[in-house]
Amino acid sequence: MKLAVFDFDSTLMDGETIDFFAQELGLREEVVAITERAMAGELDFYASLVERVSLLKGLPHSKIEEICKSLPMMNGAEEVVAGLKARGYTVVCFSGGFRDATKPACEKLGIDADFSNFLHAEDGILTGAVGGEMMYSNAKGDMIVRLQNLLGISRENTLVVGDGANDLSMFAYADIRVAFCGKPILREAATHCVNIKDLQEILKIVE
Questions:
Q1: Using the 8-state DSSP alphabet, how is residue 9 labeled?
Q2: Neighbour count for residue 188 (Cβ, 10 Å)
Q3: Catalytic: 9?
Q4: Half-sphere exposure of 174 toward its Cβ, with a 13 Å CA cutoff?
Q5: 3-state class of 13 per DSSP?
Q6: What phi and psi values does residue 188 have, to the nearest 5 degrees?
Q7: Is 163 a catalytic residue?
Q8: Alpha-carbon distance 105 to 13, whole Å?
Q9: Residue 100 to residue 174: CA distance in whole angstroms
């Protein structure tokens, strides 16, 4: 049995979910700037997430659901999931983003499970608060160890794919570590780098 864990934003999905949300409020540039610094490892991930989500206060949750239905999947996303499952992998998504986005996307892609955060809303309106197990810089590493123990899978049989600094913690527990169009800080920790936006390139690594 093998385990493949993918990041969501800018990995399985072509873009950052929160940037799409912020665009609705005319705050895209402000949020993008914070996101880029967080993914480069220049800001604490938790603090940056809380700051960015606070800017979404007042956005209707119905708008969130509408946006999440049309998020663009990365080129090759369906093919890489199908290809890995055909090779005996359990495929999972870890996201420092939001369940509103990961749940429908992962169901569409055939991913076995998704772990992400939740946007808090009252009376159908975002309060600017966020909660969940993927809010911290070490969260993905902690979760991958729990999954490996639960499924009885070693690091030798674990593949991880991500693009930013908050993926570093899960890179520590896998022998195959793919930086997908990754930030320099993640590329340094990777065993493989894919520099084009085509997830099918990963199938060449596991053949």
A1: B
A2: 12
A3: yes
A4: 29
A5: strand
A6: -65, -25
A7: no
A8: 8
A9: 27
Tell me the HSE value of 169 on the side-chain side, using a 13 A CA sphere. 19
The mean predicted confidence, pLDDT, of the chain is 96
List CB contacts of 125: < 8 A, sequence separation 6 or more: 58, 59, 60, 61
pTM, entire model = 0.95
CA 188-29-132 angle, 5° bins: 65
Is the distance from CB of 114 to CB of 106 less than 8 angstroms? yes
Confidence at residue 207, expressed as pLDDT on a 0 to 100 scale = 81
User: Which of 11, 15, 22 lies closest to 72 in space, CA to CA?
Assistant: 15
Active-site pick, 9, 19, 100, 167: 9
Place of tokens 């220049």: 42
Report the alpha-carbon distance of residue 116 to residue 131 in Å, rounded. 9
- What is the SS3 assignment for 5? strand
Distance from C-alpha of 103 to C-alpha of 111, rounded to nearest angstrom: 9
Which helix (H) or strand (E) segment holds residue 109: the answer is: helix 99-109
Tokens of 141: 């590493």
d(C-alpha 77, C-alpha 72), whole Å:
10
Rounded distance, CA 111 to CA 101, Å? 13
Q: Which of the four pLDDT bands, split at 50, 70 and 90, describes residue 206?
A: very high
Instruction: Give me the residue spans of the domains in the chain.
Output: 2-206
**Fold of the domain spanning 2-206:** Rossmann fold (3.40.50)
